Amino acid sequence: MATMADVARHAGVSVATVSHVLNATRPVLPHTRQAVLDAIDALGYTPNSLARSLVTARTRSIGLAVSAISNPYFTEILQGVEAGALEHGYSLLIADPHDDPAHERKVVQLLHERRVDGMIVAPSADPQGLVDYLARHGVPTVFLDRLVDEARAPGFAFDQVCAENAEPVSLLVTHLAELGHRRIGLVAGLPGLSTTTERITGYRRGLAYAGLAYDERLVVPGSSEAAGAERATEALLSLPAPPTALVTANNAMTIGALRAVRERGLSVPGDLALCCFDDFSWADLFSPRLTAISQPSKEIGARAVRLLLERLGSPGRAARTVRLPSAFVHRTSCGCPEKGSDS
């Protein structure tokens, strides 16, 4: 079996250089790094991860706790995290907290007990137990998608990354208003999530930009899932003066809203214009094609990995919150003609 010394001789470098390439502990010139990687490939060298972790107190593993992994949005985030981790020689341990605060705290503890070097977590609507655990044990952590108020853990630095939420929803609302809609409903997400709060803020901002009054009856929580959104949409359509246009605050809720519209025998956009937050890989195949806000899901995941590695390299640096831009994908469910497609 090849050893690190064999790799060093084959590549014409020192054992220390091979170690730096394997552990990312020091920058190595690109051509030198490639020579080491070629030697590893040629010799079939496999690093002894267990022995290395005993020496360095690092396992080169990252714990990822994300709910609703079956959701296409979080699936793409997972792909971004996985690609970023593999690029830097890290493995992933994945758990689903099911958006339940007690279960969230439990799975994070289990990941921590597996000696992961750090955590990437999409927190629940009530993350205090989670934050308390991470702060008490000093676990390097990045929160993604959903932000946590830093006042929950004074003195504990955690980094965060998410997409812009408020302005994109405002854009959807003003677009619908420009099309002549005066009663625009919102199927909102799970109360307590930062994404829910920010998207409601964007909804209200869009109404204000359009000169429309806010009507609390037109905002109904859909619990961030399809069944809840179906009930919320049914409630909106049952109002004495129902909305003529609807914004759904995530992709799962878009499915529920469309189901409720269909059950009513209504059509989109003929009877109800629809815009959604979160694009689908298959949104272009819906009839009508869905006008949506597209989040940079994979980039959110990859950026979370970079933030975590920076935290591992510089534990004392100030916490950072990174917001990535979302894109307006203009199709036809809003009521625009086909010629107004993707822009």
Task: Give your account of this protein's structure.
It is a single chain. Helix 11 links the parallel strand 8 and strand 9. The strands form 2 sheets. A 6-stranded parallel β-sheet has the order 2-1-3-4-5-11, with helices on both faces. It has helices at 4-11, 15-23, 30-43, 49-56, 72-87, 101-113, 128-137, 166-178, 194-210, 226-237, 251-263, 297-313; strands at 61-65, 91-95, 118-121, 141-144, 159-163, 184-188, 219-221, 245-248, 273-277, 291-294, 321-324, 327-329. Helix 1 crosses helix 2, helix 5 (72-87) packs across helix 12 (297-313) and helix 6 (101-113) runs parallel beside helix 7 (128-137). The chain has 343 residues and is an alpha/beta fold. It is built from 12 helices and 12 strands. The longest helix is centred in the middle third of the chain and has 17 residues, at 194-210.
